Amino acid sequence: MSFNFKIYQQEFTKLARVYQLEPIDLHIFESIPSTNQKIWSLIDLENPLPIAVIALQQTAGKGQWGRTWQSSLGGLYLSVALNVKLPLDESFHLIMTSAWGIANILRIYNIPVSLKWPNDLILENRKLGGIKIETRTRTENIKYAVIGVGLNWNNPVPELGINLQSYWHKQQQQSITYLEQLTAITISGILFGYQHYLEIGSQKMLANYKKLLTSMGQEVTVNNCPGIVTGVTDKGELKVRLRSSGASTELSLSPGQISLGYPQ
Ligand code: BTN
């Protein structure tokens, strides 16, 4: 398996024109432990940003909450590094802009992706992909952001996952032909998401993100109390309204305090 740079470049050039994106260097690897890890070493070597790295497979792909991300041939394993200036407590803004940017652009390609709080990409109630953000700070601000994305293209997926080839097989039509195009589309989604966030601000971006959330209105249980998801705060906490004997309490929960299942 190899990566045809020309196909990638054609798609990226097209999208860069539409979304007015800045140029970005793409580094391509056959097999490495992790694209997130690799991109940090390129940052340390003072490569100018933004920069992107993909690998055809990863041997130690990093998932959320310290999990490993299975990364066999056929999937998209991508990291994009950006220079940012964000207060430390606004790292959620990187999640929402990237998740929204990627989902928004995939929807334009007729793939009705939605989002599961905080950073899962969902298709037909299954996990199509995930995002892992890593940051480095300088004087109270986030200075470097690495946005790592794993997207299921043609790779085997776990029980609650879905890949694009099986989705298209059922739909009997395919809107993206090559992994190289999906790479260009995903990079463009990340760049456009961040650019758009800088233009419209965090409140409007949060509203955009919430429109794509499957989790809104979902029933949940917190400490044996039934509740309903009512929103997400600007800091990325999940808002849950608990109902108990007539009274209702509003809670804001961090990802460590609650994990949402997949909608049925
Ligand atoms: C999740 O657990 O949902 C997030 C998974 C993110 C995986 C991607 S694959 C490319 C990039 N490099 C990594 O090591 N992890 C991210």
Which descriptors would you attach to this protein?
31% helix; globular; alpha+beta; 32% strand; 264 residues
Which stretches are low in confidence, meaning pLDDT under 50 for 5 or more residues running?
none
Strand content: 25-35%
- Tally the helices: 6
| Distinct bound molecules | biotin
Query: Quick one: how many beta strands?
Result: 11
Q: How would you characterize the largest beta sheet?
A: 7 strands, mixed
Task: Calculate the terminal CA-CA distance, rounded to whole Å.
Answer: 36 Å
Question: What Rg is obtained from the alpha carbons, in whole angstroms?
Answer: 18 Å
Overall SS class: alpha+beta
Helix content: 25-40%
Overall outline: globular
Strand order of the largest sheet: 1-2-3-7-6-5-4
- The average pLDDT is 95
Order of helices and strands: HEHEEHEEEEHHHEEEE
Fold topology:
Elements: H1 5-19, E1 25-32, H2 35-44, E2 51-58, E3 76-87, H3 92-108, E4 114-116, E5 120-123, E6 126-138, E7 141-151, H4 164-171, H5 179-200, H6 202-211, E8 219-222, E9 225-232, E10 238-244, E11 247-253
Helix pairs in contact: 1-5, 3-5, 3-6, 5-6
The protein binds biotin (BTN).
The site of biotin has 20 residues, from helix 2, strand 3, strand 6 and strand 7.
